Amino acid sequence: EEIKNKGFYTLKDCFSVQDLDKIKNSLLKILHYIKPDSESDLQKKYYQIKKYNPKLKGNWYDIVTRDINLLQFLHAPALVDIVKEYFNTDVVFSGRPCIHVHDDENDKLLDPHQETSQLSRDSILLWAPLYDTNKVNGGLAVFKDSHKHGYFDHILEHPRLKEKSWTKQYTHVDSSIAKRFEKIELEVKAGSALLIHSSVLHCGYPNKKKGSVRIIITERYNPL
C-alpha cells in the first residue's frame, strides 16, 4: 500500500550486519585481484585502486554484478515474493543488477529520472546502501507524488556538459518537470532497502565527506 500511495517503501533491516560484511568482503576481494595487499577497508581500497588504475576500477564496477555473493542477496526469495505479490504474478525477471558508486568527486550523480527501458513497463527498483546514507554521505532523493503522473519523456543530452562527467549522454527528464514536485532527500541506514516503483522520479544527492564512498546495491524486478 505504501508503494502504491507514496511510490516507495523503506524495508528496514533487510540485510543483517553479517550480510553486509559478506557483500563488502566479496567486493573487496575482487579489488585485491587488481592490487593485492593487506587493506581490509572497502572504502580505502576503492580509493587506492582509483589512484592506481582508474581503468581497472571501471572493470571492477562492471564485473561485480556477476558476483554470486551479491546476486544471492538481490534475488533472495523473500524480496522476489514481495514483487510477485505486488504485481500479482508468478514470474519475475531480473532487469539489471548493479552497484552504484559515488565517491567524494560526485561526478556520477544523475539528474532526475525514472526507471525506463526495462523488460516490463512497470517494475520495482531495490536500492540498498552498504553504508549509511544521509546529508553528509549523500543519498537518494525522490520527488513526491511523481509516480501518480505516469512516465515522462526522457532526453539523453547531458544537462551540464561543462562539468566533469563520465559520459556525454544519459537519460533524464527536463528540469521543468522535476520542479513540479517536492524533492525529498531520503536518509537510509545500511542494511535497510528502498523498494521504489519505476515511475518515481529520483536522483542522487552529493557526498560531502572527503575519503568516503557511497556504495549501493540495486536490482530492477520486472513482472511478466
Q: How would you sum up this structure, described in words?
A:
The chain has about 220 residues and is an alpha+beta fold. About 30% of the residues lie in helices and about 25% in strands. It has seven helices and eleven strands. It has helices spanning about 1-5, 15-35, 40-50, 55-65, 70-75, 75-85, 175-180; strands spanning about 10, 90-95, 100, 125-130, 140-145, 155, 170, 185, 195, 200-205, 215-224. Strands 1, 2, 3, 4, 9 and 11 form a six-stranded antiparallel β-sheet that branches. Strands 8-5-10 form a three-stranded antiparallel β-sheet, with no helix packed on it. The chain has a two-stranded antiparallel sheet with strand order 6-7. It is globular, with a radius of gyration of 17 Å.
Quick summary of this structure?
The protein has 224 residues and is an alpha+beta fold. It is built from seven helices and eleven strands.
What are its keywords?
six-stranded antiparallel β-sheet; alpha+beta; 11 strands; 7 helices; 224 residues; single chain; globular; three-stranded antiparallel β-sheet; 23% strand
